[in-house]
Amino acid sequence: MIDAKEDFKKDGAKNRLREQDIKRIVDAWLAKEEIPHYAHLASFDDIKKNKYNLNLSRYITPRDKDIHQDIDAHLHGGIPAADIERLESLWAICPTLRQQLFAPMPQRKGFYSLSVPAEQVKETIIADSSYIHQSEDYRSSIAGWIDSVRPEWLALVSGCKPKQLIPAWSQALQDTASQFHCLVDAYEVYDQLMNYWNETMQDDLFLIAHSGWNAKAEAPQVVDKKAENAKDEDDDTPKIMKTKDKFNYTELVTDLLPVSIIIDEYFPKQKAAIKEREEAREEILQLQANLVADYEEDFDESFFDKQKFNKVNLKKALAIAEKEKRDYMQSVIPHWKDWLKMDDSAAAIKKEINNLIKQLTHDVMKRFAELTEEEVKHLVVERKWIPTIIGMCDSKMQDSLQAVINDIIATHDRYEYTLPQLEEALSEDRVKVHDWLKKMGYTY
Fold first, then answer.
1. Which of 37, 203, 386, 416 could form a disulfide with 63 if both were Cys (CB 3.0 to 4.6 A apart)?
2. Phi and psi of 368, rounded to 5°?
3. In this structure, is residue 324 part of a structural domain?
4. Tens digits of per-residue pLDDT, 79-111?
5. What is the model's pLDDT at position 245?
6. What is the C-alpha to C-alpha distance for residues 224 and 244, in angstroms, rounded to an integer?
7. Is 195 a member of any domain?
8. Which range of residues forms the domain containing residue 22?
9. How many domains does the chain have?
């Protein structure tokens, strides 16, 4: 019997089984072993004793998730030892962390206080030696699995069977992660790989199975942005424009090797140059906007032709103002000139950016045409698959860390103020409200 009712992901009004949920169920069924709060192999005698009632709660004790309130702690302060023991799974993984976070209260046996301010809990955990050790074990386990599958990935050829390969890879990752005690459960690590497999990697392998590491098949195509914006949300197939003479690298799509990887690998300086010029232009545009905001009256629409503020109308208004030389306009003219200078500077930088983008687009197209199969293989495996999987696993560690932090802070917050302190604060607030009402002429 398996009680997997709590293992799912919310998807709108539906509950969906994740890859890790399915794997956990299958593993429990095949093992036919006792798993506390999850699985139980019931004998015929067990069923007979329960009068043939197959309700799961008669055979599998649900995990206690209730928050037990300690009245003594609410009255006199301190965190009960029982609440700290509820974090036993954390202490088993990071044994030295408990002493770093909680200290016994001298006058209250069996009660503890948080040793550091709540806002420093994260820094304390990250600096703890046992947390650092388990993090290193976690990352080394992922790296070890990568080293074991890398030769297989690089050896993939046309005709390979993707659906026959992923079960062994995912099981190996789960087995590797199971060897270490980490905050991230081995099934969650398995889930990261399977999610990436479903989203991207299986499509890549089917392309390889069909055409191999075909460099020529990687010629970029231009995406039709209008069609992209108009297509259905569930349609993730890029809309390709058949003919387009002018385009830039942001409009290019490929099946196996993303354009971004080519740029990062071969043209990082050009990418950095474009970013630097874009930031410079953005800074000027911000100064321009600040000028208009600081001197709003000088840029009032009433000054401009058809009461519309733009560069053309501003130039017309400036020419008239300089010709007429009216006194009240003398303070306005410098601000208009400053705005036009900024606009010219932004336009000049925009032209630089367009030239840089044009050159980078040309270089990217040329580099794609020159790619060898070995280069495609290297870039897909080393720059696409491996960094993405490692990033997803690292993200899971961060999620687990945040969950631990939330549990610790919630435990602290539960007993931060005693009932007498809350009553005193309430009494003070009541007096303040009464005084304010009295000043406003209300009595009760």
1. 37
2. -60, -40
3. yes
4. 999 999 999 989 999 999 999 999 999 989 999
5. 61
6. 9
7. no
8. 9-58
9. 2
